[in-house]
Design goal:
This protein has 210 residues and is α+β, with helices and mostly antiparallel strands. The chain has two domains: 8-88, Elongation Factor Tu (Ef-tu), domain 3 (Beta Barrel); 107-197, Elongation Factor Tu (Ef-tu), domain 3 (Beta Barrel), CATH 2.40.30.20. The protein is built from four helices and twelve strands. Strands 1-2-5-4-3-6 form a six-stranded antiparallel barrel. A six-stranded antiparallel barrel has the order 7-8-11-10-9-12. The longest helix has 18 residues, at 192-209. 32% of the residues are buried.
Amino acid sequence: MFTGIVEELGEVVSIEPAGTTGESLLLTVRGPLVSSDAGHGDSIAVNGVCLTVVGQGEGTFTADVMKESLDRSSLGALVPGSPVNLERAARADGRLGGHIVQGHVDGTARLVSRNPGDNWDVLRFDLSAELSPYVVEKGSITVDGTSLTVSAVSAPDASEEFFEVSLIPETLRATTLGELAPGATVNVEVDVVAKYVERIAAVTAARARG
């Protein structure tokens, strides 16, 4: 489990095919802080995707990226030199500075626009119909591994669905979101609590009918 508080801005060192089908990758990332105490089998979130450490180097770690992760996230678009948000798994005795983040990306979104404010930037992302029901104003959302508060969301009957987040200077400085340009694709994880509520309601309704 993670909290969505990015610890370090890392950099992709290399990306190599894994296996014989080309449907998985071996990703090596430079991140001196998160790799300083990383061991084989540890979890590190890379742009919000929970990956398992399978190798360590001097200030780097290596992880397998399977087809499911590539299909649901933007990791397949990374190239050597790409900046990435990094976070180690949360400690049970630590503070929950963001919100409960699983590192299980639900899908991707595209940055539609960014508008500078007095001391912040407002970023608007498109929102798929599948993820729209889980996103609420003032609720939590994870964008490329960063825990953010939804500052605005489109109306239920809007022709184009979107959500907005307002980023403070620290977030702009410490994450990849500071340099994100319109048209860029990001990984999105919605609040897991909403998904559990939906599942419980659906199962309860089905049993009541049957």
